[in-house]
Each structure stands twice: as structure tokens, then as C-alpha cells.
Design brief:
α5 runs antiparallel to α7 and α9 packs antiparallel against α11. By secondary structure, this protein is α/β, with parallel strands linked by helices. The protein starts with 6 loop residues before the first strand and ends in a 7-residue tail after the last helix. Strands 3-2-1-4-5 form a 5-stranded mixed sheet, with helices on both faces. Strands 6-7 form a two-stranded antiparallel sheet. The chain has 13 helices and 7 strands.
Length: 338
């Protein structure tokens, strides 16, 4: 146990952790590798200090362990740590870079997630993973049957066409193809059952949970998007405005401005990709409805759809939806159309 340590900068791994101990004056006391057990013991024995780590998959777990032992936790995004790596990249250099980045007073850090929040994220990503697997199986079956002249449109809704073709005994499909088709259909049916179960749980939560129900009052946001916001977004009170939350999601153009000349490009790929994707999908569904109806009571949206391409309008509407999410959450009010 060392009392003259102000910061422990940790380069996380599965079984070995590189720990850089920093004194109050910024000098390095030691920089050595520890096993999982020794690192856990260090967090328990060390007097309260700053524990800095890169924000990654396991950092939230170790952040909770450090907080339980009375330490202040700073999770620094990896993209902000990289500029501080000196010359060669190795565990020692990474740990020193984490210490240097975390010591900056203006450095942005990630809030440590609770176990319940991470559990929501696991449920959401499990649902999305199973949907992708089902889509993969359906497309594989469509491709196989297309070789024998059986063609069906995309999507689970058109799976009935393939089922009828496999069940039609008077067709010219070989028996081996019918057998393999049955294997595909059984797997798709099992995945559909689990997907619908998870979707029902999200639907039930969106009706019983006050925060999720409030988010679902915003046009274009359903139970899945509301669940993603609850799972992946930090406390929205930490953002000064809805614009900052939209920028955190990545719903802003990339800037290459200099000399007072503002140059904006396409939407940045940085930010929270899960929420951003769902907001754009929800915005596109709203725009399709506006186009189908021939207009909207929302003058801003009607003008936007009339003068901009659909995808550009969808990103702009998604940005506005993000600001709505921030507003209804921080004010604890349901959405009301102005």
C-alpha cells in the first residue's frame, strides 16, 4: 500500500493489467504488470485516489469495483488517449498515455455505467443480434431456392412464399433441397419466437416504465429506440443542451473549418452508433408517412421534406428528435407538438 499515489492509470486486458502509478507532482512511481487478483487487491488496499482507464468493454466493471473501494474513476475514450502515446505502442506506453490524458483538466470522460444499465444493453444487443441472424438465414434460403426458380421478395413477411414452395410436393425441388429448407425454416421459427419474446418485453417496459413511456410520445420513437436510449445514453442531465446530446450521438456534420471559414461535410461516424442508427430509421419512417400523406401539420418538417433529399431530411429530423429526447427527459414532461 502506497500513500503518495495520486493516480493509478490502468491499461486493461483480460488477464494482465499494466498499472502506472503517478505521484501528485506528475512523476511516475512505478509502471508494472499485475494479474487480475493482484490488481483487485491493489484497488482494495490503495488509499483513495484517481483510477484512470480507457473506456472499453470491461472498463465499466472495473470502474464499479474502484468506486466501491472509494476511488474516483475517470474513463477516457481511446481516441483521446492515442495522441499521448510516445513513439512505440506497448502496454507501458499506453498506461503512461492514459495517465497523461486523464490528468488534463479539460479532458472529457465517460460516466461509469451501472450493472442494470449494462444489462439493458445486453438485452438490446441480443435482440439486434438475433434479428441479424434471422435475416441472414432468410436471405440464404432465398438464394438457395432462387437457383431452382423459386423467387420471393425480401423480408420476413414474405417467408410464406418460400414455405409454400417447399411444401408443394408436385414441384421440381429435389428432396435434399426440401430437407435443407426445413432446417432453415425450423431455425428461423426458433429465432422468431425469441425475437418476439424480447420485443414483447420491450413493449411491456415501454408501457410500465415512466421514462420509456415518455420517450415513446415523440414521433418516430418506439420501444426499441427508447430501450436503446435507456441502455446506451448516459444521464442526459450531464449535457448542457439538446444540441450537445445530438453532437454526442454523432448527428452533426464533420467540420473542417479554419480562418473563419466554416466548412461542413457529411455526418461523422463518431458517436453512439446504435441510437443514431435507430433515430435515422425512425426519422425516415416519419418522412415516408409525410410523403404518403402529401404534407404535414409541422411546417418545419413539411418545408424540409419539400426542399431536401430524403436522407438529408432524415438526418436533420433525427438531430431534432435527439434534442426532443433531451428536452422531455430533463424536463420530465411528455412530448407536445408546438
Amino acid at each position: 500500500m502506497t500513500t503518495n499515489i495520486s493516480m493509478l492509470a490502468v491499461d486493461l486486458s483480460k488477464g494482465s493489467f499494466q498499472v502506472c502509478a503517478v505521484r501528485p507532482d506528475g512523476s511516475v512511481l512505478y509502471n508494472r504488470a499485475l494479474s487480475r487478483a493482484r490488481f483487485a487487491a491493489l484497488l482494495a488496499d490503495q488509499p483513495a485516489c484517481v483510477v484512470a482507464m480507457e473506456a472499453c468493454a470491461t472498463s465499466h466493471h472495473w470502474g464499479r469495483v474502484a468506486q466501491h473501494n472509494g476511488h474516483e474513476v475517470r474513463l477516457v475514450p481511446a481516441v483521446y488517449v492515442k495522441p499521448f502515446v510516445k513513439r512505440q505502442k506497448n502496454d507501458r506506453a499506453d498506461a503512461e498515455a492514459i495517465a497523461e490524458a486523464a490528468s488534463r483538466p479539460s479532458m472529457r470522460v465517460v460516466t461509469v455505467k451501472s450493472a442494470e444499465t449494462q444489462a439493458r444493453a445486453v438485452a438490446f444487443r441480443t435482440h439486434q443480434c438475433l434479428v441479424r441472424q434471422r435475416t441472414q438465414l432468410i436471405n440464404a434460403l432465398r438464394g438457395h431456392l432462387a437457383e431452382f426458380g423459386v423467387v420471393a421478395p425480401k423480408g420476413p413477411a414474405n417467408l410464406k412464399v418460400l414455405e409454400e414452395a417447399l411444401a408443394n410436393e408436385v414441384g421440381d425441388l429435389p428432396g435434399a433441397v426440401r430437407a435443407m429448407g426445413s432446417v432453415y425454416l425450423d431455425q428461423i421459427a426458433r429465432l422468431t419466437e425469441v425475437i418476439e419474446q424480447l420485443a414483447d418485453e420491450l413493449e411491456t417496459a415501454s408501457r410500465t416504465d415512466t421514462d420509456l413511456r415518455r420517450l415513446c410520445t415523440i414521433p418516430g420513437i418506439g420501444p426499441v429506440t427508447a430501450g436503446a436510449v435507456a441502455a446506451f445514453a448516459p444521464d442526459l442531465g450531464t449535457f448542457d443542451s439538446g444540441r450537445n446530446f445530438a453532437a454526442w450521438l454523432g448527428l452533426v456534420p464533420r467540420q473542417r473549418s479554419t480562418g473563419g471559414k466554416a466548412k461542413f461535410g457529411s455526418v461523422s461516424k463518431m458517436g453512439q452508433t446504435d441510437i443514431r442508427r435507430l433515430l435515422i430509421v425512425g426519422a425516415m419512417s416519419v418522412i415516408r408517412w409525410v410523403v404518403r400523406k402529401g404534407g404535414s401539420t409541422n411546417r418545419w418538417l413539411a418545408t424540409l421534406v419539400a426542399r431536401k433529399p430524403k436522407m438529408v431530411a432524415a438526418v436533420a429530423l433525427a438531430n431534432k428528435m435527439a434534442r426532443m429526447i433531451w428536452a422531455v427527459t430533463t424536463r420530465q414532461e411528455d412530448y407536445r407538438m408546438a
